Amino acid sequence: MQPIAQQAMTPEIITKIDQSGVIAVLVIDDVKHAVPTAKALLKGGVDAIELTLRTDAALDAAAAIKKEVPEMCLGFGTLLTVDQVKAIADVGADFAVAPGCNPRIIQEAHKQGLSFAPGIMTPTDIEIAVENGCRVIKYFPAETSGGMKHLTNMVAPYGYLNLKFIPLGGCNIQNAASYLESPLITAIGGSWIAKQPLIQGEQWDTITANAQEITDLIKKVRG
């Protein structure tokens, strides 16, 4: 099976995500919280985020972060439609991920020049992703699918492809090391760093502390 010629994610974004080691998953429902959240995360060492497309404020929040906190690697999640791909590309997103593996979304992301990682949970999902040029892939939902044990066994036949994964779904500070220790993992994703109630309550110091905790763990595990 030969994948399409184009890589679904640029080398620059692949490197950025790998160096970050973690992607903070955010649900922002009020634009005024976008910049303070991003700054609180950066203060704790987290410089990659996934803004979920679950609220009406998501696109405006992204625009605010892009303008005020340009050093943040800005991603989107819950990407489900072609129109959403176009919308987040217009905002200037650095990358996007999705819960599932839809070839139409992958192809539109490439058309828009948007780095994209589809979601997988089965070998069939992996083969669809690979056929469409993906080498960095979201593993979702990670914990309920069997965590690293499931991923390691599932990926064994595809080892020669040097695939990298972003596990999301159930990742937290307690199990983060079990993922980060694996060479299969480029970065983990999780909402625990800046949960929606923390953002709504403007608890910036707590968000910074959570970000610092995972940043310190990444340094400890990866050296």
Provide structural commentary.
It is a single chain. By secondary structure, the chain is an alpha/beta fold. The protein has a single domain, classed as TIM Barrel (Alpha-Beta Barrel). Helix content is 46%, strand content 15%. The protein is built from eleven helices and nine strands. The chain has a six-stranded parallel beta sheet with strand order 5-4-3-2-1-9, with helices on both faces. Strands 6-7-8 form a three-stranded parallel beta sheet. Helix 2 runs parallel beside helix 11 (204-222) and helix 4 packs parallel to helix 5 (103-112).
Low-confidence stretches: 1-5
* SSE string: HEHEHEHEHEEHEHHEHEHH
- CATH topology annotation: TIM Barrel
CATH superfamily: Aldolase class I
CATH classification, class level: Alpha Beta
Question: How far is the N terminus from the C terminus?
Answer: 36 Å
Strand order of the largest sheet: 5-4-3-2-1-9
List the total number of helices.
11
Question: Key terms for this structure?
Answer:
alpha/beta, six-stranded parallel β-sheet, three-stranded parallel β-sheet, 11 helices, disordered N terminus
Can you summarize this structure?
This protein is an alpha/beta fold.
Secondary structure elements and pairings:
Blueprint: H1 11-20, E1 22-26, H2 34-43, E2 48-52, H3 58-68, E3 73-77, H4 82-91, E4 95-97, H5 103-112, E5 115-117, E6 119-120, H6 123-131, E7 136-139, H7 142-145, H8 147-155, E8 164-167, H9 176-180, E9 188-190, H10 196-200, H11 204-222
